[in-house]
């Protein structure tokens, strides 16, 4: 046991306390809030900049790359700040309370069109979008870390995560269907710019209220009262040295979010050109998230029956089968294609949802090994790696399609169609196979994690 561990004093509530369903809904509402606001931004802001605000596609694309790089690099610094926070509201919840209204206001400003010149528009967009992205990290990192402060019971964590993922995907469905509908309806009676601003105002207000609801209906039961040993940025390197489960999970996040980014980006090409049915794009996209509302509520049951590693193996294998099926299904067999999409999405959503439930375990293990409970910093590290995975996944389709001679808005050559199919099925399947190997190195099985929790609870009782 480290010397730092001996100097920590914890709030010693019963850690196996069952979390009420109201609190689970309260916690999940935070992810619904983030999706209503930030997924609207992620999905429609580029279109708004180019087609409504009047920024060139090249300038907007460069700005997105720069802002996302700033956002990813800011994660560890914000995580360190969160771990240093101690207030009467707790360590993580204050960010939800005090960030809710500014988050909504900045989102509305991003969808506002002041009467500036060309360069003035670009400067305005850089300032508002960068501020929004950094503030989103200031909310999302402590929100994610809040799970580890609510409970350390692994079953309760899985329950919390399953409800959270249902709400997150519900937010995605609302954004996919309601945002363009609202923007179009309001824009018809006013103007396109006003339609988008009003729509973002509605999403922003709803998101802010949900974040405040999340703040009011969650409790930080596991609190570090006093830490002798300064929390610093260099703790990242200490965690990578001693926290092997965290390394495995970071690697897993890169792979899974890379795969998701590839699949989401190339799906429209596959349906439009290989299948020849652009009218099915919205349904193909819908089937990518719809299974979450059906499957994720049963995540705790699946975890109990299969165990964490077997659950991940089954879900990843299911995704591989659904993905590779597209190689042999004829483009004219629409029902089979949609079935394969549904199968792959089901496996992907189970794996993607469950891996969030493993993060609190790495926080406990890091505490066990170093004597420092670094919930904010570890969630920030995870955030950096999944953003890195999304960035890599966003680059791959463009490079592959270019290599195979894809040309936009025309009938594709057989060679180009092969490139689209490889990007849709083969590359994700190979990466999923790598993920299957990686998850075997996750050493915190049920028995080992129970030992870690027991040691931590003993430390709390004795104060040593």
Give your account of this protein's structure.
It is a single chain. By secondary structure, the chain is mainly alpha-helical. It folds into two domains: about 1-10 and about 230-464, Up-down Bundle (Growth Hormone, Chain: A), CATH 1.20.1250; about 20-220, Up-down Bundle (Growth Hormone, Chain: A), CATH 1.20.1250.20. It has 16 helices and two strands. The chain has helices at about 20-55, 55-85, 95-110, 120-150, 155-190, 190-215, 235-240, 245-275, 280-285, 290-295, 300-305, 310-325, 335-370, 375-405, 415-440, 445-460; strands spanning about 10, 225. The protein has a two-stranded antiparallel sheet with strand order 1-2. α3 runs antiparallel to α4 (about 120-150) and α8 packs antiparallel against α15. Residues about 1-15 have low confidence and may be disordered.
Describe the secondary structure blueprint for this structure:
Elements: E1 9-10, H1 21-53, H2 57-84, H3 93-110, H4 118-150, H5 154-189, H6 192-216, E2 224-226, H7 235-242, H8 244-274, H9 281-286, H10 291-295, H11 299-306, H12 308-324, H13 334-370, H14 375-403, H15 414-439, H16 446-462
Antiparallel strand pairs: 1-2
Keywords: Cell membrane, Membrane, Symport, Transmembrane, Transmembrane helix, Transport
Membrane topology: Multi-pass membrane protein
InterPro entries: MFS_2, MFS_trans_sf, Na/Gal_symport, Na/Gal_symport_CS
